[in-house]
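Q: Could you predict the 3D structure of Protein arginine methyltransferase NDUFAF7?
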Amino acid sequence: MNSSLVFRMCNRLVLPSMVARGYAYKTIKRPDPKTLKMPSPASAPSIMDIIKEKIRLNGPITVAEYMHIVITNPTEGYYMKKEVIGESGDFVTSPEITQLFGEILAIWFCAETQKMGPSKPLQIVELGPGKGTLLLDVLRVLNRLGYKGSDVSLHLVEISTTMQAIQANRLCMSHRPVDIDMPHNHEGETVSGIKVYWYNDLKKVPNAFSWYIAHEFFDVLPIHKFEKTDKGWRELLIDLDKNNKLYYRISGEETQSVKMLVRPPLDSGDRTELEISARGLGVARQLAQRVDEFGGLALIADYGHEGEKGDTFRAFHKHQLVDPLENPGASDLTADVDFSQLRIAASKSPGAENFALVVGPVKQKEFLERCQAELRLQVLMDNAKTEEDKEKFKSAYEMLVDPKKMGERFKFMAFYPSSMAEILDKYPPLGFSTTKS
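A: Sure. Here are the predicted structure tokens for Protein arginine methyltransferase NDUFAF7:
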């Protein structure tokens, strides 16, 4: 008999019984996300232990990975477990220094929005709202301008439940967590009836006409650090030495971050050091698309530069500079914002449908003075009850504008819809000397 025929017959007769199998699936009951709880701080490993174990298992980590762990670890992350802003914390922000700062920003938004037309209903979106102080000052101005509770809603992008609780207690008359299936994870209501929502990602905020505020937000986003060597660009990594201490080292080969991020025009000029935040570029692009497609304005205020600096990664503890690799989780990790990179991310690129008109950056001193902050200062001083209060207003303002303090280190940048090009040519942006395209 033909051998191939025998083989086919055997397949038909034998293989089905040999290979056939019944269902052997086992039902697994998955945990209900609503019942899951974070481990207690006492039982959770320290940030240093987490980092060291990650390095032992996977090798050196990037600065961006290091920052992400230190900042966002659910139980031991820097922003997750304590109030960090103010005299008792590690740093102080402009809104905490004086109410004038938030009031001027509110006036800027109102003035520029008038060039667009009606602004009701209005979403106010703040990225990293701190203690909520800036929003309180903005709402006070809007109340004086006739905005009612039904005209405004607040949308706060905040990953820290600790900071979220601080914000909710300051802003809201009542607040509550919501179902896990909702895009926001917490909601509340102010005394005047303004709805407040919290999100862990900008992508979840509803698309609508909005004012976007990013004050001291971009400086805490994780960065990749690169150095130019005789072999080309290499990434700065964090490793463990023989004494089990963290230290910096240069990658021997091109990392994936070098291949993806270090490219024209980000590496233009004669730079030998470079810091790039992939997350920062992504957020800038999101803001540009949202402003252009759905209307509104985005205002970024942060300390930074326009590409002239290359090594700015540092840490603050109790208002003092400390080693970023010492006691991770106990100090604020930060890096100066490269505004030239934000411009590249937000401006029109080949194939882009949505982009923003980018203005700035300008120094904080120039922005505040062009927005007539001195006039507001005079009103506050005239209404002060005591000479001591007058001096406080004056010294606080000087802190904001003094070139040796915050006046020149902090800068402002704004995103406008691309459709406003002709309007801005006729009515230049308040606070900014020229429009750069």
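Q: Anything worth pointing out?
A: DSSP finds 14 helices and 18 strands in the chain.
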